[in-house]
Amino acid sequence: MKIEIYDPPMCCSSGICGPSVDDTLIKLNENIEIIKNKYPDASVERYMITQQPLKFRENEAVYKMIKEKGREILPITTIDGKIIKYNEYPTLDEIQTYL
Predict the structure, then answer these.
(1) Is 0.85 topped by the overall pTM?
(2) pLDDT tens-digit profile of 49-96?
(3) Which of 70, 65, 68 is nearest to 78 (CA)?
(4) What is the CATH number of the domain that holds 7?
(5) Which residues form a coiled coil (predicted)?
(6) How buried is residue 23: exposed, middle or buried, by Cβ count under 10 Å (0-12/13-18/19+)?
(7) How many domains does the chain have?
C-alpha cells in the first residue's frame, strides 16, 4: 500500500522548520511515523510541488484536480493512486480506514 501526500509549497520537505511551526504538520509527521511502525508494508511518500513537480503530473487524478481547482486545493493525499482527501491533511483514523 502506497500513501502519497502532495504538499503545497513549504520551506522544506517537512514544513515544520519555518518561522512559525504549524501544529498540523507536526501531527502529520507523528501520524506518518505511527503508520510506518504499525503497517510495515505501507510506504509513505511526500512530494512538494516546488521541488518535485513531475510527481504531481504522474498521478492523473492529482494533476487534473490541480489543473481544475488550482494549487489552493493542496494538500492532496492518495492511497494506491486514488485521492482520499484534499484541501487538508487526513487524520490518522482517516488513513487507517484505508489500510
Answers:
(1) yes
(2) 988 999 999 999 999 999 999 999 999 999 999 999 999 999 999 999
(3) 65
(4) 3.40.30.10
(5) none
(6) exposed
(7) 1
